[in-house]
């Protein structure tokens, strides 16, 4: 886990708290929290991370398509969930000088 991933996780949790049950159904909140949890502790090659990311992106698209969320807000949440996960840079070894 990196500080950037940890910060992204914090943003997701705050967004879920702010949205509450008015903007997200309970199962949607659980789905997004589960995706963020999975991504936070995932390695680059973890297939569960890809599934979690796909689930979160699908939910964000659904929120927009049903008119429940504005595209910008849904995209920001999806981006924050994605940022909880590893990037290719996380797996690159640092070369000793």
Radius of gyration: 14 Å
Number of strands: 0
Mean pLDDT, to the nearest integer, reads 89
The major beta sheet can be summarized as: none
**DSSP summary: helix tally:** 4
End-to-end separation: 24 Å
Q: Helix and strand string, N-terminal first?
A: HHHH
Give me the secondary-structure category: mainly alpha
Quick one: overall form?
globular
Strand proportion, as a percent range, falls in under 5%
Percent helix: over 70%
Parts with pLDDT < 50 across at least 5 consecutive residues: 91-97
The figure for the number of domains is: 1
Strand and helix map with partners:
Blueprint: H1 3-23, H2 26-40, H3 47-65, H4 71-83
